[in-house]
């Protein structure tokens, strides 16, 4: 054991270090990082040892030695409870280590990130990973899957034309940095963010990109825009530099070849390298070529350029892997030609994956070198350079991915064990927030709403999608109460809600004018929300917090509400109900009426600005409010058109019919 680690152990125990302590430390160094974090709670001496820089450095050295066999992966997928508003990171182990069964373990949840727009750096840098939201107002995030730390980087102000960022490690300063390139007006800017810098700000790089001669800035500007909008391929860190591909699409390029832009993390200077001369010109609009024909990778510590030579209709397909032999001279060599034809036919011969990405090098159980290749169809394959065979080592199940293919970029990355703190919440703060969450989710919703005023940290926690999901999943709920809807008071909008007991016990004069003047119908609670409907409008209400949102008119003047010939006491002359869409995690208001005299169905969610027409019901329905069960609404059909139950699957937006027993048959059954 290293002397500095021994001294750290002595300081933590305040006792001489023994052979048993050495053995215990060696055992701890072999454990997964998530176990190390839990063991910090054993006692103070263990917490001091496992938090010391000496142990962290020793653990990093052990983890680097184990990293040669990369059999663990990180997979980002839509959250099962809120797929459009949050993303869950899972850890997967190679199917060769799990007897062919891929079972993902949830690591953490990222609120406010839609997985369909996620762009991931597939190779970790000292255990940390960088991902981004590719939408125009997107944000860059840094996470450590081992510790569960994840935080967004500060957003840049002003408009950007093209944006690309990569994660790099500065050996001299022993720091992780994010390098960001973006277009601004007629120039390309470069900014640096140091993760553990207390200022939490971006700063300009030391060297301006415009000083890289003899490069054409217009060409690089177009290449940066192409990467941001088309390829979604993040830069790659290798040999102490971050590298971007610059596609040659213009005639004013002196060499007429693709180039690689290099940014030295230590000196913060740029230089340009020519790509291999035999790499064909990038044809952006050729539909027969793959979406990303060129991408960079790091193999065996060196920069590699991967040329995807797939072409629609050809019998065989392969990848050319070029290695940068001399970084100073810019000399390349073609080291591998990988036949990926079996990889394309692993699922369907007619369904080729849009993206194929080389993740890195690994070793199998016998120590033989392999090249790991991932696809946008959530699979990882291992290529054996000696035999040329390609073997499937991971296939993420549909129950986790929810989609056959990632729409924007790869959702897969390599997993690297690390105890490194990336600069966001410390372990004690994470423990505090975890304990606070467990307490708050068991409180009444009104108390939780009041708790948002405690501080900004509590407010952010309660507003997060992960907290909302945890609150909805708690089985222990207080008994349901009956509330009375009355006129809003003061500046309260539309309605107010009072428990029936309080309303009945109020003095007689206090009851006058409290009831709403119009007839209203309130739905049963649906995941905590109610729909209050009048003859004209609908209001989505949270009666626990008093929050109310008017859904507004149907948005089309030609839409007419359902007629109400019966005028029963449980109707406002409209057939409208509230349901929950489990695929998106949103509440949906559904109304059946008429457009130009024909039956029609309109839906509206709280996140959409307008109502939308989703078809016509198979039969006319009564104006009795529908019932909602497990994502489906149920109406009774009009008696004149035969007794039946009209169903509406909210997620699929599809109608159906359930037949009903005739009334006479039911009467005989009940009498018997």
Question: What is the CATH homology-level superfamily of the largest domain?
Answer: Kelch-type beta propeller
Q: Please name the CATH architecture of the largest domain.
A: 6 Propeller
CATH topology of the largest domain: Neuraminidase
Q: Taking all residues together, what is the mean pLDDT?
A: 76
Shape: globular
| Strands, total number | 39
Number of domains: 4
As a percent range, the share of strand residues is: 25-35%
Q: Which structural class should the secondary elements be placed in?
A: alpha+beta
Main sheet attributes: strand count, strand direction, barrel closure: 5 strands, antiparallel
Number of helices: 15
Features:
672 residues, alpha+beta, 4 domains, 15 helices, 19% helix, globular
Q: How would you portray this structure in words?
A:
This protein has 672 residues and is an alpha+beta fold. It has 4 domains: 3-65, no CATH class; 67-414, Neuraminidase; 427-473, no CATH class; 561-664, no CATH class. It contains 15 helices and 39 strands. Strands 31, 32, 33, 34 and 35 form a 5-stranded antiparallel sheet that branches. Strands 3-2-1-24 form a 4-stranded antiparallel sheet, with no helix packed on it. Strands 4-5-6-7 form a 4-stranded antiparallel sheet, with no helix packed on it. A hairpin with a 6-residue loop joins strand 5 and strand 6. Helix 1 (3-13) packs antiparallel against helix 4. It is globular. The chain starts with a helix and ends with a helix. The model is unreliable at 8-16 (pLDDT under 50).
């Amino acid at each position: 054991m290293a002397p500095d680690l021994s001294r750290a152990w002595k300081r933590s125990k305040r006792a001489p270090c023994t052979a048993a302590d050495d053995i215990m430390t060696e055992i701890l160094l072999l454990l997964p990082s998530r176990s190390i974090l839990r063991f910090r709670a054993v006692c103070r001496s263990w917490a001091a040892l496992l938090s010391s820089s000496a142990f962290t450095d020793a653990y990093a050295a052990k983890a680097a030695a184990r990293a040669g066999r990369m059999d663990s992966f990180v997979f980002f997928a839509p959250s099962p409870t809120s797929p459009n508003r949050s993303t869950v990171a899972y850890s997967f182990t190679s199917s060769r280590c799990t007897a062919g069964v891929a079972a993902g373990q949830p690591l953490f949840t990222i609120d406010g990130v839609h997985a369909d727009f996620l762009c991931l750096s597939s190779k970790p840098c000292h255990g940390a990973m960088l991902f981004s939201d590719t939408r125009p107002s997107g944000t860059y995030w840094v996470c450590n899957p081992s510790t569960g730390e994840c935080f967004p980087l500060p957003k840049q102000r002003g408009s950007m034309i093209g944006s690309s960022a990569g994660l790099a490690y500065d050996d001299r300063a022993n720091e992780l940095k994010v390098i960001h390139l973006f277009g601004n007006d007629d120039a390309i800017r470069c900014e640096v963010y140091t993760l553990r810098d207390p200022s939490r700000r971006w700063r300009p790089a030391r060297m301006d990109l415009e000083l890289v001669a003899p490069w054409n800035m217009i060409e690089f500007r177009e290449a940066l825009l192409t990467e941001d909008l088309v390829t979604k391929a993040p830069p790659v860190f290798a040999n102490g530099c971050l590298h971007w591909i610059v596609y040659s699409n213009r005639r004013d390029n002196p060499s007429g070849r693709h180039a690689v832009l290099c940014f030295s993390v230590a000196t913060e200077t740029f230089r340009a390298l020519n790509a291999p001369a035999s790499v064909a010109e990038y044809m952006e609009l050729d539909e027969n070529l793959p979406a990303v024909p060129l991408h960079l990778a790091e193999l065996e510590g060196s920069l590699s350029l991967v040329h995807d030579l797939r072409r629609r209709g050809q019998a065989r397909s392969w990848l050319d892997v070029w290695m940068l032999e001399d970084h100073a001279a810019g000399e390349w060599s073609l080291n591998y030609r990988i036949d990926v034809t079996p990889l394309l036919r692993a699922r369907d011969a007619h369904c080729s994956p849009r993206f194929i990405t080389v993740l890195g090098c690994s070793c199998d159980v016998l120590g033989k070198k392999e090249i790991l290749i991932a696809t946008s169809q959530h699979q990882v394959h291992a290529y054996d350079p000696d035999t040329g065979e390609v073997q499937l080592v991971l296939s993420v199940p549909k129950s986790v991915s929810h989609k056959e293919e990632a729409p924007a970029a790869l959702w897969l990355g390599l997993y690297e064990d690390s105890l490194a703190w990336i600069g966001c919440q410390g372990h004690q703060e994470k423990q505090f927030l975890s304990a606070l969450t467990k307490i708050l989710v068991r409180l009444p919703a009104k108390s939780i709403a009041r708790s948002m005023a405690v501080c900004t940290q509590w407010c952010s926690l309660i507003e997060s999608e992960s907290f909302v999901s945890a609150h909805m999943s708690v089985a222990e709920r207080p008994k349901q109460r009956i509330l009375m809807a009355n006129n809003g008071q003061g500046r309260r909008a539309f309605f107010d809600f009072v428990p029936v007991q309080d309303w009945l016990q109020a003095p007689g004069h206090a009851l006058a004018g409290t009831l709403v003047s119009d007839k209203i119908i309130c739905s049963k609670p649906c995941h905590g929300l109610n729909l209050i409907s009048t003859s004209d409008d609908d209001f989505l209400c949270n009666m626990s917090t008093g929050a109310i949102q008017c859904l507004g008119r149907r948005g089309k003047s030609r839409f007419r509400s359902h007629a109400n010939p019966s005028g029963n006491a449980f109707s406002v002359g409209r057939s409208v109900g509230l349901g929950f869409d489990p695929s998106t995690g949103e509440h949906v208001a559904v109304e059946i009426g008429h457009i130009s005299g024909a039956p029609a169905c309109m839906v509206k969610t709280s996140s959409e600005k307008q109502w939308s027409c989703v078809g016509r019901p198979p039969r006319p329905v009564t104006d009795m409010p529908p019932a909602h069960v497990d994502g489906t609404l149920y109406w009774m059909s009009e008696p004149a058109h035969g007794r039946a139950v009209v169903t509406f699957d909210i997620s699929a937006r599809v109608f159906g019919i359930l037949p009903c027993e005739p009334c006479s048959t039911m009467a005989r059954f009940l009498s018997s």
